[in-house]
Amino acid sequence: MSTSDVFQIVNTIVLPAWLILIFFPGKSWRNPVIYTFSAVMAIVYTVYVISGLGDFDMESFSELEGIKAMFTSDEAVLTGWVHYLVFDLLVGNWILNQSQKHNINHFLIIPCLLLCFMFGPVGFLLFYILKLIKIKKID
User: Fold this and answer.
1) Which of 45, 72, 120, 130 has a beta carbon 3.0–4.6 Å from 82's, enabling a disulfide?
2) How many folded domains does the chain comprise?
3) What is the pTM of this model?
4) What is the extent of the structural domain holding 57?
């Protein structure tokens, strides 16, 4: 299967998971379903990481040029993209779980989730600010 095909598949897989976070936040099945989506994509990620281990150089992580060089192949870019998709989804699910724990209105959380989906840390930051305002302390 080509990297373009896998890219299309993981992008398609992740969309329903985000829709679940937005439209079904209180369902008891949400967490297991989100973790299953994440696990499936983590398997894809693991396959690409293992297949690319021969090209792995620890020193590449110490310089920007090394990081840029690591992402010169389609396989490496796809691996990085899946990494983002999995962690952004898990952070989005964490945001939702924390918002429910602290009784933050879901309509305030939807922008956090959308930003987390598109710009990961920005969504986390918005949620963190909302949480600080709500509970007036840092956990």
Assistant:
1) 45
2) 1
3) 0.91
4) 3-135
